[in-house]
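Morning!

This is the sequence you dropped in the shared folder:
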Amino acid sequence: MEKEYLNARFKPEEFERLKRDMVQYESALAVVKTQLDNINAYYNAYETINPIEHIKARIKAPESIAGKLMKKGLPVTADAAQAELSDIAGIRIISSYAKNIYEIAEVIKNQPDFTVISEKDYVTNPKPSGYRSYHLIVEVQLGSLFNNQRRRVEIQLRTQAMDFWATLEHKARYKYRGEMPAPLAEELQNSAGQIHELDERMYLIHELLDLINEGENND
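The structure's back. Tokens below.
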């Protein structure tokens, strides 16, 4: 069944409609990316430490959009993609430490140009697979050229270790067409727990170094 989703495609007329719609998502992505770049620049200029390591932006491929629609039992049409999917445009923010994720999320939620549609905390409440990340769906207005339509962008916040695990797990799922062998799934789940512990320990070391530096500066 998973193989069917991987082979899903839009019909030619729907594909043409989707291509036009994708321009709107690219515009929405540019709006969000610019605002996030401004936040990053602020941290670099005005704060001692920038919690943002880097920012990645992407537009979901038409084949992935078609596969997700089919998996949800929805028609593979441009209208269904626009109405039902919130992750066609996506941005991933990699933070230094897990605790930074919540600080950055609050800054994003307070941006006046963003309307927060939903948020899911998979950092504190990971998925059964072990996946950890913080997801925000924000909506932005595109302006008069697009008749002031609004489009959604998914923002994922995670540490470098969480991102490495998620990339590895995605490759494994793709290789096995969504039917991953149980031993491999269990090993990935165990690794996710160890990565989370490592993230916590690294933050404690970071705090300890800050305390040591503070003590030396006060001598």
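Headline: The chain has a mean pLDDT of 91.

More detail when I'm at my desk.
O.
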